[in-house]
Amino acid sequence: MSEPYDSRFTLPSIDDAPSTEAGVILMGLDAERLLAGVGLARIADEPALVALAVDQARHDALDLGTDALVAAGIARWRAVRPLIEAGPEMTTAGSLRKEWEQTTARVTATVTGLGPASVACLAACWLRREDVDQFAEHGRAPEKGSTRDVLSQVFAD
Fold first, then answer.
1. Is 28 helix (H, G, I), strand (E, B) or coil?
2. How many CB atoms lie within 10 A of CB 31?
3. Mean pLDDT, to the nearest integer, of 100-129?
4. Is residue 38 a contact partner of residue 129, using CB atoms and an 8 Å limit?
5. 7: pLDDT confidence band, cut at 50, 70 and 90?
6. Which among 78, 81, 80 is positioned nearest to 141, based on CA atoms?
7. Nearest to 65 by CA among 105, 73, 94
8. How many CB atoms lie within 10 A of CB 97?
9. CB of 41 within 8 A of CB of 120?
10. Largest Cα–Cα distance in the chain?
């Protein structure tokens, strides 16, 4: 009798996009790291925000520490989560790679103007939404007006 087959650990197809493998890696991160990724991806997706962030960092008005990135990620997650949730229902794929493809399609269809980093980080957050929501609810969002709140001000939509 053979061992039970576990599709989570299958090797990727040579036809799979590299972003799918990156997504499988992202899904393994904890909620804090995923939210920090959402915060940082917001900068990377928007050239004007990169220029603004660099200028603010140059003048010591921007903290790019983990706490600030997590806070920015929490703010962004709270803003876009309802949009993703309202997206089209998708069937459970049964494979991490298929689940990733479906989720990135859902994120892309429901949140406009995202670059590849935000799509990936938000898709990973959606797939891990229970953990991410719990962390965001009890996370370390900064007080309004504090120096740690600068990053979320940069990212205000």
1. coil
2. 23
3. 93
4. no
5. low
6. 78
7. 73
8. 19
9. yes
10. 66
Does residue 17 or residue 144 have the better pLDDT?
Answer: 17
Query: 107 with 84: CB under 8 angstroms?
Result: yes
Query: Is residue 149 over pLDDT 60?
Result: no
Average pLDDT over the chain reads 79
Single-letter amino acid, residue 36: A
* Rounded-to-integer distance, Cα 57 and Cα 51, Å: 10
Rounded (10°) angle between helices 66-85 and 96-110: 80
Q: How many helices (H) and strands (E) does the chain have?
A: 8, 0
Give dist(CA 38, CA 46) in Å, integer: 13
Own/partner pairs for 6-11, CB < 8 Å, 24+ apart? 7/94, 7/95, 7/96, 8/96, 10/95
Q: Which of 23, 24, 150, 131 is nearest to 75 (CA)?
A: 150
Assess contact for 99 and 93: CB atoms under 8 A. yes
